[in-house]
Amino acid sequence: MTEYISVKNPATGELIEEVKTNTNEEVEQAILRSHESFKAWSSVNAHERSRLLQSWSRLIQENKEEIAKVMTLESGKPIKESLGEVDYATSYIDWYAEEAKRLYGRTIPANTETKRIIITRQAVGPVAAITPWNFPAAMMTRKAAPALAAGCTFVVKPAAETPLTTIKLIELAHKAGIPENVVQCVNGSGKTIGDIFTSSPYIRKITFTGSTPVGKSLITKSANTVQHVSMELGGHAPVIVAADADIDFAVTQTIASKFRNAGQTCICANRVLVHESVVDEFSQKLASAVSRLKVGNGLHEDIDVGPVINKNGFNKVVSQLEDAVNKGAEVLAGNEFDANQEKGYFFIHPTVLKDVKEDMNIMQEETFGPVIPITTFTELDEAIKIANSTPFGLASYFFTNDYRTGVYLNENLDFGIVGWNDGAPSAAHAPFGGMKESGIGREGGSEGIEPYLETKYLSIGNL
Ligand SMILES: NC(=O)C1=CN([C@@H]2O[C@H](COP(=O)(O)OP(=O)(O)OC[C@H]3O[C@@H](n4cnc5c(N)ncnc54)[C@H](OP(=O)(O)O)[C@@H]3O)[C@@H](O)[C@H]2O)C=CC1
Ligand SMILES: O=C(O)CCCC(=O)O
């Protein structure tokens, strides 16, 4: 019997579309097609692969408004953010269309006159990707673009909440001339399809963005087939506001970092540590600005913060808030909800908490919602200790105009991404990824294509 995923608008709970799921056999056939088309695709010359990627990017841009609308409908993010995400998604395709032409090898001087040593790079093989709902376009293209540029074939399983954007982008890839078997989309349960991907002898690499527990299980399962893995997992980003920081700037940047996609990003500000001498000024200015943010259906142009994705996401945030307030946190803004379980929409008003302590869950777990917990520190080392005290190591931020403080913080924070007076560090041309349980590997920049390449060492003898 054919099964369907009901894709619903998280701002209203209304059904947008039913998407047919793929049977296990269909997923296996897609993998087989990926395997069978690998040789031909990896043999296409890099300039041609680059041209095809450029055409894909152009077509996406030509359909930008339509894609953004679909993205807002299925993810709930404000339309201005969806339009921005389309640009962000194509920036990865544009970047890797160029990198395709720069997959250089090298030679190594041999220790005898009768040998030559040549190092070349080749595509790792068919790649399987599992992507999340929070960035339905960009998390796919930042995997697909380097994979295709390197000569890999690619099959993606998008999140059940947001398959429509991905389906549309894959259609456009085919329209751009990338062969249908080279880039494919399958739909269904993450667990079932993840198991098929990780046990397949044809898939040579699995790349995932999502929660840390799922990432860990994919790493474990892919060990059986020794697949390459790239994992972009949870974060718990600290923001450190030093005594000398430009407070107004720190407030603006913290808001930009925190409320993008209603706080549902793995790099958003999650714990704000403010020097005790400036905490009152910072908290008051922050709460006042946060109270002015407009919450609502992301299709309306003036909306700053949309709904959270679903009931599970809502319950997690509410339970963190209850725990914090019960343990003595003070609410400076928000802590209000507009949720309708029956209809299926869940809005959380942007919230600021003060007097947050380390034993509160909100300081230990990723929130994935529009809440800013503020705590204080006296010595810089105390802030560093708190910042580094979780298993996560994705993004961190600090605000200071003192170069010694800045260099010291950068050298002592155990995070893959550090924003110094910068709450928005993401860029296609820079390596994005985490330390510790936040992941393995980097996406973006020249580093982002490395995981899709094997190194081959050729030793020519008897010359
Ligand atoms: N790093 C990040 O950007 C993200 C982090 N998260 C974190 O995870 C929390 C929970 O969100 P949630 O959506 O449940 O995240 P998940 O990690 O469960 O989902 C992300 C993707 O993984 C798939 N998936 C789920 N279970 C498995 C599995 N066992 N094997 C393989 N793939 C699987 C999902 O498929 P399916 O649609 O079928 O569930 C989806 O495509 C959030 O609150 C947040 O803290 C979530 C999303 C992104
Ligand atoms: O939340 C994520 O998984 C990725 C954050 C988006 C970005 O800034 O690249």
From TrEMBL:
Record keywords: DNA-binding included? no
What is the protein's name according to its record? Aldehyde dehydrogenase
The residue ranges of the Aldehyde dehydrogenase domain are 4-457
Sequence similarity: Belongs to the aldehyde dehydrogenase family.
The species this protein belongs to is: Oceanobacillus indicireducens
Pfam families, per the entry = Aldedh (PF00171)
One example of the protein's molecular function in GO is: succinate-semialdehyde dehydrogenase (NAD+) activity
Active site per the UniProt annotation:
232, 266
- InterPro entries from the entry? Ald_DH/histidinol_DH, Ald_DH_C, Ald_DH_CS_CYS, Ald_DH_N, Aldehyde_DH_dom, Aldehyde_DH_NAD(P), Aldehyde_DH_Superfamily
Q: What gene makes this protein? A: gabD
